[in-house]
Amino acid sequence: MKDTKDIRTALRAQHIETPSWAFGNSGTRFKVFPRQGVPRDPYEKLADAAQVHRYTGVAPTVALHIPWDKVADYADLARHAREHGVGIGAINSNVFQDDDYMLGSVTNPDPKVRRKALDHLLECVDIMDATGSDTLKLWFSDGTNYPGQDDIRARQDRLAEALAAVYDRLGDDQRFLLEYKLFEPAFYVTDVPDWGTAYAHCLKLGPKAQVVVDTGHHAPGTNIEFIVAFLLREGKLGGFDFNSRFYADDDLMVGAADPFQLFRIMFEVVGGGGLGPHVAFMLDQCHNIEPKIPGQIRSVMNVQEATAKALLVDREALGAAQAEGDVLGANAVLMDAYDTDVRPLLAEVRGEMGLDPNPMAAYRRSGYFEKIAAERVGGTQAGWGA
Ligand code: PSV
Ligand code: MN
C-alpha cells in the first residue's frame, strides 16, 4: 500500500471556494422554486457558506457577486465573514443585467454604456480593497446575435481598452481572471468565446491577468484537460469555475455528470503544479432542485475525491510506461488511481483535521437547516439576480 502521508498533507491544504449565489434561490427561465431557510441578504449567505467550511474544512473563502451582494459597508461584511470563520474570495463583476447592456457592456457600440460598465468594474476593485479580496472575476455576456449586427474587430478593440483600464487599476497583490464562454446569451458572436481569446488578451496585459476555466463553458466533447495543461504551462491558469453539465451551461454540481472528466482535469492540475493558492478552485453552481448547503458540501467532496485520485496516480510508473511507449500500461496506471475508492482516505484526512468523517451526515445532525427554516421567515429571499 502506497504511503499516503504527502497526499493527506495536500488534501488537508486544499482550498475550494464557494459562491454566495449558490445559497440563494435559483432555477431556470421556466421556474424558480423558493426554498425554506434561504438567506435574505449577503450576511445570511456568508453564514450558510461558513457551514460548508465547518463540515468540510476546505472551503474557507466565499466569492461575492456584485451587485447581488451589494451592501452599505463591505469592510463590515468582511468582518462578519471572519467572525463566521470564512473570508471573502473573488469579487465577481456583473455587467449583464442592466437594460443598458442589451447590446453589450464593455464592447457596446455606445461609449456611454461602455463607460458605465467600466465604472462598475472599477467599483469591484474598490470592493476588493475594502474586503481584502485579491481576485476579480470578469465575465462578459457581450456579443451579437446576427451577422452584420456590429463589427467583430471593433468589439475586440473596445474589450482590450476596458481590460487595460481595469488592469491598470489593480494593486500589486491583485489580479483579474477573464472568463470565457462559448455562447449564451449571445448566439452569433460572443466577444470572449474561448480560452484562446481570453489567453491572448491576458498575455498582452501581463502577469496580473489570467484565464479562468468555467467547466460548463465549452462545446460538447471539448478536451478541457488539454486547456488546463496548456494554460498551467504558460502560467496563465488563474482558476476554475467548477460545475458540471450534460448539455450546455447547466451549472450542476461539479463531478455529478462526469466524475471521470473532473479526475482528468485534476490530474493535469496536479501534474502541472497547479494545486496551490495561485490557482483558485471556485464553484460556480446553482442548486435548483436540491437543498443548497448539502449541495455545496457534496460538490466540495466531489472535488476532494477527484483530487485524491489524481494525487494517487503513480507518476513514476506512469512516466516509465510512457517512456517505453507502453500505451496500455500507461493507461492502466491512470485508471488504477481513478478506480480507487478514496472515501476511506478522505475520512482519515477529516479525522486528522478534527472533523467528522462524514460532512453530509454531520451537517444533517447539526440542526442548522431546521434553525434557519424557523428563523428566516419574512423578508425577501435572495435569488439569482438579487
Ligand atoms: C456565466 O455563465 C457565469 O459562469 C459567470 O461566471 C457569471 O458570473 C456566473 O455564471 C453567474 O452565475
Ligand atoms: Mn462562471
Describe this structure in words.
This protein has 386 residues and is of the alpha/beta class. The chain has one domain: Alpha-Beta Barrel (TIM Barrel). Helix content is 45%, strand content 12%. The protein contains 14 helices and ten strands. The strands form two sheets. The chain has an eight-stranded parallel beta barrel, surrounded by six helices. Strands 5-7 form a two-stranded antiparallel sheet. Helix 4 links the parallel strand 3 and strand 4. Helix 1 runs antiparallel to helix 9, helix 1 crosses helix 12 and helix 8 crosses helix 9. The longest helix is centred in the first third of the chain and has 21 residues. The termini are far apart. The model has no long low-confidence stretch (mean pLDDT 97). It binds alpha-D-psicofuranose and manganese (II) ion. Manganese (II) ion binds next to loops.
